[in-house]
Amino acid sequence: MEPLAIVIVVALVVVAAFMGVAMYNGLVRWRLRVDEAWAQIDVRLKRRHDLVPNLVNAVKGYMGFEQSVLERVTQARARAVAAGGQELAPRATAENQLTQTLRSLFAVVENYPDLKASQNVLKLQAQLTTTEDQLGAARDDYNAAVRAYNTAIATLPAALMAGRMGFSKREFFAAEPEAELVPAVEIGPM
Questions:
Q1: CA separation for the pair 128, 81 (Å, rounded)
Q2: Which domains does the chain have, with CATH numbers?
Q3: Tens digits of per-residue pLDDT, 94-116?
Q4: Given a cut of 70, is residue 140 above it in pLDDT?
């Protein structure tokens, strides 16, 4: 083999190795970005889980005959907390159910003037609303990171090697259609 051919082969191997390392490092960065975005969702979900019992306790005295709403919220919170270590899909389902029951609770609160005037309830409701807004933004950020990561592992040249290097597609955290609906609430006699 001629010296020029050897130099070309070595140069191609070095370039290919450099490209492989650069591709791997890029995919690791995208995967870490997805993990970071998920951690932000996790923080906000924990905050919401911590606020719900306080809200339930604050409204209990006012809503004696609306006990079923409080029980549904408490049960939905318990399911959401229990789903904490599960895969994304069951966890998203549990969190969406909690969102739906909280909307029901907020709708009921609107029908109780004394409850609406309670500073404690107003403060907790504002904190939950802020947390929900932050959670929505964190979900958007997570889904953007997942979209970028999934695109990176599905496009050439990474698509040829990503699976062999341990990179797999991630799921989006999307609200279920029923979580987007406004709840129908029946109010008992006042």
A1: 16
A2: 20-176 (1.20.1440.20)
A3: 998 999 998 888 888 887 777 77
A4: yes
